[in-house]
Amino acid sequence: MPEPQRLVKPLDSFVREIALCVATNGDKGPALFWPENLRTLPALQRLARSGRPPGAGSRAPGPWLSPAAGPPRQPGSGGPEAELLAAALGERLGLLVRPSYRFLSCGAVGARRASSAAEYMVTVLDGACRCRVTRDTDAAGGPPRDAMDLRLRAGGTLFVPRGHAYDLLDVHTPTLLMELVLHEPD
Fold first, then answer.
1. Which of the residue ranges 29-43, 75-89, 172-186 would you say has the lowest mean pLDDT?
2. Rounded distance between C-alpha atoms, residue 65 and residue 59, angstroms
3. In this structure, are residues 111 and 166 in contact, taking their beta carbons and an 8 Å threshold?
4. How does 43-79 read in b/e, with b if 16+ C-beta sit within 10 Å?
5. What residues are paired with 32 via a beta bridge?
6. In this structure, which long-range contacts are made by residues 146-153, counting pairs with CB atoms below 8 Å and at least 24 apart in sequence?
7. Residue 119 — very low, low, confident or very high, per pLDDT cuts 50/70/90?
8. Nearest-angstrom CA–CA distance, 137 and 70
């Protein structure tokens, strides 16, 4: 029987940091952190490269990114290594975790992600963008409120708890994001 796959140390450390962030901030609000292990970002970037979509050239300035490539591509989960990371995080938190990648070209605006039924961990793997985090609605069902503007850059991870939404804005350089969606099992 084959030995189960294990995460490399920087990714295991990242999973523990995410779990601590969720436990600490889950009922308080959004949080932004950078991994303690200096090898975490390169390990996450290798994960992204291992799930490179077919036809993505190696000339890109970062994983899958090419200013001339046109609109962002959605490769799905990013491969078995990203799924292993998601499974390890899900096991630690007792939640289902779905990994995906988002690619934003220069001038792009990321679609609004609302987190009424899920929580999001958004990690910038390459590039930078501005992010606005808001509460989904106020108590009277009005428009989003309590806006918080952040600058996300490579290595930063944003936690967006339930009841909040985020928009990605001001993308001046090609940007690659890893998004982990955390939700309750069915």
1. 75-89
2. 9
3. no
4. bbbebbbebbeeebeeebebbbbeeebeebbebeebb
5. 158
6. 148/30, 150/32, 152/32, 152/122, 152/124, 152/128, 153/124, 153/127, 153/128
7. very high
8. 34
